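Consider the tokenized backbone below.
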């Protein structure tokens, strides 16, 4: 990777691209400040918001697929007691890929349309590429995979040392938090997956709306 490409990945969007992200030309609305790199704490809070939505969505997908899987298993002559546990092939080839597709679809649809999920919208966060543009599907997948690199490595290390699922999950969670703690030590304020995917999450400026009576007086 050339020095020029490295510098591009470690820099936030240019001033011109950030300027294009500001809402303009709306009567009765004023914007204070410019977009800036989002702080780690705000990003983690937004993840907690989105996490609750994702868990509910995964629960719904899992419930539907579990019911379908149970019906398929029972049709092969297995008793209802045995069908309570789905076969390993169904969990590995159907449930796991479905959860992955659901996760990618959740972030992909939101990032492609507006650059922000519902949790990010609450805190005025927006994810864009290094040029300030909305993410493509390839960029979305790359960003999600980049966010999984450190948690997967930490999870594997935790499992190798303690050989338990709880240790693996705790280590993976630590890896996820490290992605954002890295912002504190990075001069540009970027997370690990920001740098690996060439994307950035911005804190958008606050929009001030005029009151109803003030707007009516202006129209007169």
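A designed sequence for it:
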């Amino acid at each position: 990777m050339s020095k020029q490409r490295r510098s591009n990945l470690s820099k936030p969007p240019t001033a011109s691209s950030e300027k294009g992200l500001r809402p303009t030309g709306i009567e009765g609305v004023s914007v204070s400040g410019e977009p800036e790199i989002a702080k780690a704490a705000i990003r983690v809070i937004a993840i907690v918001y989105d996490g609750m939505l994702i868990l509910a969505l995964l629960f719904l997908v899992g419930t539907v697929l579990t019911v379908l899987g149970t019906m398929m298993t029972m049709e092969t002559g297995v008793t209802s007691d045995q069908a309570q546990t789905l076969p390993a092939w169904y969990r590995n080839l159907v449930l796991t890929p479905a959860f992955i597709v659901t996760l990618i679809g959740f972030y992909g649809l939101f990032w492609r349309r507006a650059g922000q999920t519902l949790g990010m919208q609450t805190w005025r966060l927006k994810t864009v590429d290094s040029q300030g543009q909305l993410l493509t599907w390839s960029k979305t997948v790359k960003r999600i995979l980049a966010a999984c690199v450190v948690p997967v490595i930490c999870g594997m290390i935790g499992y190798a040392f303690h050989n338990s699922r709880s240790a693996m999950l705790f280590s993976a969670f630590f890896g996820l938090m490290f992605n954002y703690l890295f912002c504190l030590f990075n001069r540009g304020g970027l997370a690990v997956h920001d740098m690996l995917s060439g994307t950035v999450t911005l804190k958008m400026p606050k929009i001030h709306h005029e009151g109803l009576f003030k707007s009516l007086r202006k129209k007169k």
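Residues 40-75 form the longest helix (36 residues).
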